[in-house]
Fold these 2 entries.
Entry 1:
Amino acid sequence: MDTGSGTPDVPARSGGRRADYLFLLAGGALGAFFGGIHDGLVSFPLSPEYFSVGKELGEGYGLHGQAILLGLGAGIAPGVIGAAVILYLGRKAGLGAALAHPEIARQFAYPLIAAIVVEAIFALVLSDRDPMRFRPFLAAVGVVDRSADRFLLVWWMHVGVYAGFGIGLAVAAIRLALSRRR
């Protein structure tokens, strides 16, 4: 389909490479925002031990800020990777007419929503399980009883976020591929 841009797969007024790079940057920023908010407002209040012991950030003043910074940093890569996959599938030649950036950006909802939903499921269903055998290690460093339970809860929440993100990204990828074939 010729859209007037001179390239059959890229819509007119798409912004070209600059818009693509901004899209990737926005994906990284969104991932960082999610990670920082999640670790600062959800994970840290539930289990500071997850960060002091599990992430080896140490104890004391500033731990909460370090946890937020860790979340910011940890969210960048999934955000950029998610944006790259969504952008590639939304604009790749050979799949049909390329989509404009706003249409592609709407696909970000799937990984974000799936991350939150799967996180909640893992937290509710799996948080009492200890497949990595953390409890003996935690007991050796003085994290026992409810603190150990909360550590496992936060660990499962993080596993759920990443698993949900992957599931949501797969859904977005399938939706993009199917919508472009119509």
Note: DSSP finds seven helices and no strands in the chain.
Entry 2:
Amino acid sequence: MKTKLASLIIILFICINAVAAQEPLNASTQEPATHNITIKIADTTAYAGKQGTLSFSINNDMPISSFQCDLSLPAGIRIAVNEDGKKLIQLNKERSIKNGHSCLHSTLSNGCTRIICFAMGGTTLIGNEGEVMTATVDIDKSVAAGKYTIELRNIEIVGPNESSHKISSAKATITIVAGTN
């Protein structure tokens, strides 16, 4: 099953990149010079030994058909899984699911989780701002109280005309509180 999923992800990634027409990037923001697209992880607070929720949003001035990114989490924090072993990454119903988007994910050799959101029919995300997905994370009891960095890397956003827009990274802070709630 893992091999089939990994193969599907690789094929999808190759197809997206093979047909993507690159637009010039603005060197100061690493965003396309002709579009204003931002992807953000909301800062959050969670308790050691408990679960927390990460919220991902995209603000865009153009239609978006698909996106991918690599999620890097600090040591002792990992994406939670359900009883079937599936990672708890969920698309937002209002922006993603209503138009038939799906989410695939795989763990990379560097420990990051690659997340790909797409619609087989090429439909676009609904709206131009707001949450697109969430991820539930488990925080080990051993994680010390403090502030930790969460990062999205290798972000690629694709429009319906197959134009590809790259954003180098997006960061947020997860504040871990000692004790239980």
Note: The radius of gyration is 17 Å.
